[in-house]
């Protein structure tokens, strides 16, 4: 019995390890190429680590490329999108979770339908809509498009978090003297922090790495986000892999920081103790 | 404190009717217990009084003022939920003071109200804890504390003790009774538990299928149940019933069962000879005696410690007998029984009480 249990545990850990290696290997390769000097990139064959590491790609990318602009643009776009979507999705998700209203079924159906189209189909019509409004080649335009595409899924996500909070809690608050909105703000919202963090994180990463619309709606470096900017490292005759990978690594940093910030809320079960359990 | 008047209350969820016209006048300071089987609409009625459920038809008045269209917060009542519904992100003290903070009471007033309630319920050492760090019984107390910090017009309880174990339930039951003695607050209490209903209530409201069956003091319902439903619902073990035809001969009456056996009954008005009727007797009123008129075959003995529940069969009809006589732990294969006439309950073909 003991040995079988042990064997099971070991197998379990090995499986997890294999998965982690598989998932993280591309990131490792990103890192490896980003510190490989250009002259060693093709000359050393396939090695796990170059014989000489360098940070020259990083300094170049930060000091001499338009990368800081891309980075700033991405931060603005992803941040605004995440905040806007989360606010809208919280309100909409709460309404879907708690209220019965006439067109609820149809609204949900319509929101689902928007999720069914391949986005490529929508590029041309959206461009047509945004260009007379002067919203092409602008960060605002991107924020609007990303918000529109992310709200439905985020709404369903938030709804499921609200569904998980017992209705008794806000009823108790309402009997204690709160209006429905006060009960939402003071009782329900604090308990949904994990959900809000998850939604923020999800939308932020989605907007951070979006390429298609950024590519189609933005031309020129001034309003380019970082996924578009990465492509500038691809020139007609060569690809500057070292710089591209360094930029990629740098672009990972805010996403990591962001998750570090919210992971506290992601893991905790705040509702414990609310009702008999 | 206030009276609560309920007039012709109806409730439907969509096309599905749940309450079919409930009338109830609750006096100032009275403790009323709603009992009834699951799904009969007790919680729905309570939630309508609280303002959590819309009223389909009828009027609810608190202190003479119609509150149908008033939001819960404007009704000035407190409610203890079965799930307790404590705010998990607030300490015990904050849970209790939330209603006062919403009303913008002064700091001193809040502090004295919270410490007063905490002292009453023995919550002093727990005030800084979060609900998740409390036992079920402690959570229950906090829920009570949250209700009593502000002096509301009425208390509503929806099965507040049903999540506690039997011993704790007994203890909290006594505490609730004591609390009500102190505060004299109008209270409506929903429960499944017979003993809670009998011990706590000034008056019991027995409900079934969205209709009030009987309203009365606990002993009213026990001694003179208004119909078959109440007779069967109140009391544990439940009342025994025999169905048959009511036969009058001279100045006494009998009940003739399907299998032609006759049982003694009582002469009552409101029923003609030959009409269908049901005879009821509580297990504790059946007398085991050498000279009993009936013979019962013993099927099963259930000792409860306090007494003994015997399952016997009399003329093919199952009958439960409750006795304190320890000798009945080892009865013979049969016992002789009497059904004292003055303890019999008679119901007509529609199940209404006769006499
Ligand atoms: N929101 C709702 N929508 C539809 N039907 C409902 C709703 N709430 C309650 N009901 C129905 O109303 C009836 C009465 O419910 P209620 O909760 O009042 O019963 P109860 O007497 O409190 O039962 P229990 O003792 O099990 O708590 C039930 O048949 C229930 O299915
Ligand atoms: Mg109920």
UniProtKB/TrEMBL annotation, chain A:
What Gene3D superfamilies does the annotation carry? MetI-like
**Membrane protein topology class:** Multi-pass membrane protein
List the subcellular locations. Answer: Cell membrane
Highest taxon above the source species = Bacteria
Q: Does the keyword Transport apply?
A: yes
Task: Tell me which Gene Ontology terms the entry assigns under biological process.
Answer: transmembrane transport
Keyword field contains Membrane: yes
Task: Kindly give the PROSITE patterns that the UniProt entry links to this protein.
Answer: ABC_TM1
| Key words, A-Z | Cell membrane, Membrane, Sugar transport, Transmembrane, Transmembrane helix, Transport
Q: Which Pfam families match?
A: BPD_transp_1
Q: Which GO terms describe its cellular component?
A: plasma membrane
Write down the CDD domains for this protein, in alphabetical order.
Answer: TM_PBP2
Chief location of this protein within or outside the cell: membrane
Q: Where are the transmembrane segments?
A: 12-31, 75-96, 105-127, 183-205, 211-234, 246-267
Q: Provide the ABC transmembrane type-1 domain boundaries.
A: 71-262
Name of the featured protein? Multiple sugar transport system permease protein
From TrEMBL, chain B:
Annotated ranges, domain ABC transporter: 4-234
| GO CC annotations, alphabetized | ATP-binding cassette (ABC) transporter complex, substrate-binding subunit-containing
Task: List the keywords (alphabetical).
Answer: ATP-binding, Nucleotide-binding, Sugar transport, Transport
- MF (Gene Ontology): ABC-type transporter activity; ATP binding; ATP hydrolysis activity
Check the record and name the Gene3D superfamilies matching this protein.
2.40.50.100, Nucleic acid-binding proteins, P-loop containing nucleotide triphosphate hydrolases
GO terms, biological process: carbohydrate transport
Compartments annotated for it: namely: Cell inner membrane
What's the domain of life for this entry? Bacteria
* Annotated membrane topology: Peripheral membrane protein
The entry's family comment says: Belongs to the ABC transporter superfamily.
The entry's protein name is Multiple sugar transport system ATP-binding protein
């Amino acid at each position: 019995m003991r040995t079988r249990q042990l064997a099971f545990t070991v197998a379990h850990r090995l499986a997890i390890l294999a998965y982690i290696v598989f998932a993280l290997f591309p990131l490792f390769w990103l890192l490896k190429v980003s510190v490989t000097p250009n002259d060693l990139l093709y000359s050393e064959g396939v090695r796990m680590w170059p014989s000489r590491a360098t940070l020259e790609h990083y300094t170049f990318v930060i000091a001499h490329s338009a990368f800081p602009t891309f980075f700033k643009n991405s931060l603005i776009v992803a941040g605004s999108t995440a905040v806007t979507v989360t606010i809208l999705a919280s309100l909409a998700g709460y309404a879907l979770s708690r209220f019965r209203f006439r067109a609820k079924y149809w609204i949900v159906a319509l929101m689902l339908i928007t999720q069914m189209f391949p986005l490529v189909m929508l590029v041309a019509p959206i461009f047509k809509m945004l260009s007379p409004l002067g919203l092409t080649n602008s960060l605002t335009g991107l924020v609007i498009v990303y918000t529109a595409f992310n709200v439905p899924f985020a709404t369903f996500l938030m709804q499921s978090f609200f569904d998980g909070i017992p209705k008794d809690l806000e009823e108790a608050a309402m009997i204690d003297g709160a209006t429905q909105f006060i009960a939402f703000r003071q009782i329900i919202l604090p308990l949904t922090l994990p959900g809000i963090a998850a939604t923020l994180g999800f939308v932020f990463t989605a907007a951070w790495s979006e390429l298609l619309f950024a590519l189609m709606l933005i031309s020129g470096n001034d309003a380019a986000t970082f996924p578009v900017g990465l492509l500038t490292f691809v020139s007609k005759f060569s690809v500057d892999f070292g710089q591209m990978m360094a930029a990629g690594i740098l672009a990972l940093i805010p996403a990591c920081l962001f998750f570090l910030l919210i992971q506290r809320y992601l893991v905790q079960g705040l509702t414990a103790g609310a009702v008999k359990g | 404190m206030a009276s609560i008047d309920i007039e012709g209350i109806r409730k439907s969820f969509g096309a599905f009717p749940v309450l079919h016209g409930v009338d109830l006048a609750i006096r100032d300071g009275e403790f009323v217990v709603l009992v009834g089987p699951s799904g009969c609409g007790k919680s729905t009625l309570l939630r309508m009084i609280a303002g959590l459920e819309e009223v389909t038809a009828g009027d609810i008045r608190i202190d003479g003022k119609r509150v149908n269209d008033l939001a819960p917060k404007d009704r000035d009542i407190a409610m203890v939920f079965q799930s307790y519904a404590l705010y998990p992100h607030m300490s015990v003290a904050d849970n209790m003071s939330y209603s006062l903070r919403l009303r913008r009471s002064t700091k001193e007033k809040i502090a004295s109200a919270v410490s007063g309630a905490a002292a009453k319920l023995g919550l002093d050492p727990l005030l800084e804890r979060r609900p998740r760090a409390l036992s079920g019984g402690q959570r229950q107390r906090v829920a009570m504390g949250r209700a009593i910090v502000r002096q509301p017009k009425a208390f509503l309880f929806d099965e507040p003790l049903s999540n506690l174990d039997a011993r704790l339930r007994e203890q909290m039951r006594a505490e609730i009774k004591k609390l009500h003695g102190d505060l004299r607050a109008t209270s409506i209490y929903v429960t499944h538990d017979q003993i809670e209903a009998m011990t706590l209530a000034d008056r019991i409201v027995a409900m079934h299928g969205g209709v009030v069956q009987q309203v009365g003091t606990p002993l009213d319902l026990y001694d003179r149940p208004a119909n078959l439903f109440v007779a069967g619902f109140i009391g544990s073990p439940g009342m025994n019933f025999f169905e048959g035809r009511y036969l009058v001969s001279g100045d006494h009456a009998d009940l003739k069962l399907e299998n032609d056996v006759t049982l003694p009954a009582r002469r009552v008005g409101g029923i003609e000879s030959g009409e269908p009727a049901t005879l009821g007797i509580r297990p504790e009123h059946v007398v085991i005696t050498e000279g009993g008129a009936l013979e019962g075959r013993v099927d099963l003995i259930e000792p409860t410690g306090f007494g003994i529940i015997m399952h016997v069969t009399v003329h093919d009809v199952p009958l439960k007998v409750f006795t304190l006589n320890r000798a009945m732990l080892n009865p013979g294969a049969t016992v002789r029984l009497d059904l004292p006439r003055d303890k019999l309950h008679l119901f007509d073909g529609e199940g209404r009480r006769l006499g």
